[in-house]
Design a protein that fits this description.
six-stranded mixed β-sheet, two-stranded antiparallel ribbon, Rossmann fold, 255 residues
Length: 255
């Protein structure tokens, strides 16, 4: 959903999905208006069954500005902060450099103060929460890779200080995982060196041409295993968007 301003409309063939509670809320139309997204978010928040006290939002950075995530962050801020929720925003940078204030304003709007943003540091802010066994890696890669993959994520995700963590991202073909986003936003966007390096190596060895645009690639299976085994007890929710160009083709994403 690419909407730079609160009164704009999304491009054609756009969809948004909110999930994580066992229920999935889906909005899909030729064009999705801001009011529809806001209503969908309100329904999803009500479905949580509680009013979140402290919220961590994990949107993409400026390299995914067309994803519609910026507007969703704006709307969640406008909907939750008046009700007393404290919101912090940690863009899922992966190994990218932190966003400048100008980039924050461009993507998420000037209403959200700079003090609300956190910068993920893949070198220093992560901790190891588990390991993907070598046998599993070998199995999903057809024996091409047989080393274990340590799972490292930003410490804030498992700190216990948040009662709602929301990963926001665009579903789009990706040359390493097959299809972004979902758990990739956690293990790469908010991950550490080992999981980033070794998952990318796994994708390269398996063959990028074999996994591009595939939803159950070896790398995706590794990420999903890590989430199921090591992150099932954190209050993690997902909001996923799909964006098309005016010609109906998927909007491209830089590496």
């Amino acid at each position: 959903m690419k909407m730079a301003k609160a009164k704009a409309s999304a491009p054609s063939a756009t969809a948004a999905t909110a999930t994580g509670t066992g229920k999935t809320l889906r909005i899909e139309a030729e064009t999705i208006e801001v009011a529809q997204i806001k209503a969908g978010l309100a329904e999803w928040l009500t479905g949580l069954g509680y009013r979140p006290r402290k919220v961590l939002l994990l949107p993409p950075d400026i390299t995914r500005s067309h994803s519609g995530a910026g507007l969703i962050v704006q709307l969640l801020w406008q909907m939750l902060t008046p009700k007393g929720s404290e919101i912090q925003i940690m863009p899922a940078l992966g190994t990218h450099v932190p966003m400048t204030r100008a980039e924050q304003v461009r993507m998420y709007g000037a209403e959200i103060p700079e003090s609300a943003f956190l910068a993920h540091d893949w070198r220093n802010d992560t901790c190891r929460i588990g390991e993907i066994p070598s046998a599993f890696v070998s199995g999903v890669s057809g024996g091409r890779v047989d080393f274990p993959i340590p799972i490292e994520v930003n410490k804030r995700l498992i700190s216990g200080q948040y009662d709602l963590i929301v990963s926001i991202g665009q579903v789009v073909p990706h040359e390493v995982v097959g299809m972004a986003n979902y758990s990739k936003n956690i293990f790469v966007g908010c991950g550490g060196k080992e999981i980033i390096d070794k998952s990318h190596f796994l994708g390269a060895v398996y063959g990028l041409e074999r996994l591009m645009g595939r939803d159950h690639s070896p790398v995706r299976k590794v990420f999903d295993y890590g989430e199921e085994q090591f992150l099932s007890d954190i209050p993690l929710q997902y909001i996923l968007t799909v964006v098309a160009t005016g010609q109906g083709a998927p909007a491209s994403t830089p590496a």
